[in-house]
């Protein structure tokens, strides 16, 4: 195999074929190519898996907590536009469902 030397310092970098190797004083480190198995970044694989961005509000682990500030703000806007009362006591999952209902009434949030 061919051998090329790179850099200076505590270790010498060499390549044996296509594999870079760092030669230190006591050992060598082989650097292998990084293989990705991440469905969020591998477009081809991601098409075969269900999305984790769409989840039934009933299945949310934090669905019983108070709605977020963003949910409250958007829900208040939607409620005003739809002429519906705003309920500030909704949980996260209840607020999500109510947002869906009000979006269907107002036409907001659909294919934007």
Features:
four-stranded antiparallel beta sheet; 4 strands
Please provide a written account of the structure.
The chain has 112 residues and is an alpha+beta fold. Among the domains are: 1-32, no CATH class; 65-106, no CATH class. The protein is built from three helices and four strands. The protein has a four-stranded antiparallel β-sheet with strand order 1-2-3-4, with no helix packed on it. A hairpin with a 4-residue loop joins β3 (19-23) and β4. α2 (69-82) packs parallel to α3 (92-106). The mean pLDDT is 74.
What is shown here, in short?
This protein has 112 residues and is α+β, with helices and mostly antiparallel strands. Among the domains are: 1-32, no CATH class; 65-106, no CATH class.
- Quaternary status: single chain
Strand order of the largest sheet: 1-2-3-4
Q: Based on helices, strands and strand pairing, what is the structural class?
A: alpha+beta
Task: Write the element-wise H/E pattern from the N-terminal end onward.
Answer: EEEEHHH
- Main sheet: strands, sense, barrel: 4 strands, antiparallel
Q: Which percent bin holds the helix content?
A: 25-40%
C-alpha Rg (nearest Å): 27 Å
Put simply, the count of helices is 3
Layout of secondary structure:
Layout: E1 3-6, E2 12-16, E3 19-23, E4 28-30, H1 43-46, H2 69-82, H3 92-106
Antiparallel strand pairs: 1-2, 2-3, 3-4
